[in-house]
Amino acid sequence: FAKKVIAIPKAEYGGRHSVTMLPGGGIGPELMNYVREVFRYAGVPVDFEECPIDPQSDGNEDLEYAITSIRRNGVGLKGNIETRSLSRGILSRNVALRNELDLFVNVIRCKSFPGVKSRYQDIDIMLIRQNTEGEYAMLEHESVPGVVESMKIVTAENSERVIRYAFEYAQKHGRKKVTTIHKANIMKLSDGLFLETSKRVAKHFPDIEHDSMIIDNCCMQLVSNPHQFDVMVMTNLYGTIVSNVLCGLIGGAGLISGRNYGDHYAVFEPGTRNTGTAIAGKNIANPVSMLNAAVDMLEHLGHQNHANIILQAIDKTINEDHIHTPDLGGQATSIDVVQSVVKHIQELTKDKNWS
Ligand code: ADP
Ligand code: MG
């Protein structure tokens, strides 16, 4: 089958890139300010086009503007957008954005931080999640009063794309095994299609071991023996649950980033997609998940040197200096973390003409 390559936008004058920034709600805006500060000190050649989204607005003009901006720039950096209410007729704008841009795969690397105390060390699991259909089809209706039907959509085409992505990723990055997570014993048609598709795709990758596991057993195995997993691939709802279990295993919502890809666009964000409304404005949110998302974005754009410098500065701050915010059991503020990252960037780039 044909290999698709995700389009990477060309840099403009002087190697600069323009990127859409969606601060989102809760801690999103403050985390974006930290990204801007770190980029300034690292001399990153990226200009942000900021697209705020008003969670209270009735229309969708701001969301449409943001989507147009990502279509133009090819790349976005995103906080989580609050859904206005849980009442009927209000769709999640995070889901709408992913669907509009056809960001069919969500990729989360759950890798332990050596300096963060957690239940397990040396975890390095790649989670590959279908990002646009499944239980997130947003097709629910009340057929008669008191009876609600909710549709889970699984298509052969989208299953194959995301499964192929998982195997190609494994091949490219020297991973050994892909595990399909499913509930095909109960959802025989929908999850059955996903499982059958992965068995079929696996035949094209004889060097990569393929196995499968039922989602409930997967949750138990993740908690008791996570080191058995390498690359995991699954449908949408299982993906959000498993990614939160994994992030919890290695240190919580404040560390890990997530990447969303389609054939044309890429959007980077914190892995667990929290708004963090309760901790907003208190100078305690962990800036690392959004900084890591910004690093992913730089790697995608080909600014590898800048990405490396920022990664090293984060590594020193978290794993060597142990400057930890309360989510990691520490007492540092968000600003302490950012100042330490900036200090390390200055030290790492001193006397170097690296950019
Ligand atoms: P949701 O957006 O799904 O409602 P929350 O915003 O309540 O979830 O976040 C879930 C938990 O993760 C909360 O305890 C929140 O404080 C925590 N959290 C999320 N992001 C961060 C962060 N960057 N730093 C520290 N804690 C975070
Ligand atoms: Mg929230």
Automatic annotation (TrEMBL):
Which GO cellular component does the record give, naming just one? mitochondrion
Alphabetical UniProt keywords: Mitochondrion, Transit peptide, Tricarboxylic acid cycle
Where does it live in the cell?
Answer: Mitochondrion
InterPro entries in alphabetical order: Isocitrate_DH_NAD, IsoPropMal-DH-like_dom
**Biological process, per Gene Ontology:** isocitrate metabolic process; tricarboxylic acid cycle
- Top-level lineage group: Eukaryota
Chain ranges of the Isopropylmalate dehydrogenase-like domain: 18-341
> What SMART domains does UniProt report for this protein, alphabetically?
Iso_dh (SM01329)
Q: Show the PANTHER family listed in the entry.
A: DECARBOXYLATING DEHYDROGENASES-ISOCITRATE, ISOPROPYLMALATE, TARTRATE (PTHR11835), ISOCITRATE DEHYDROGENASE [NAD] SUBUNIT, MITOCHONDRIAL (PTHR11835:SF60)
* Family statement: Belongs to the isocitrate and isopropylmalate dehydrogenases family.
Matching entries from NCBIfam families are given as: mito_nad_idh (TIGR00175)
Q: What is this protein called?
A: Isopropylmalate dehydrogenase-like domain-containing protein
The taxonomy runs: Eukaryota, Metazoa, Ecdysozoa, Arthropoda, Hexapoda
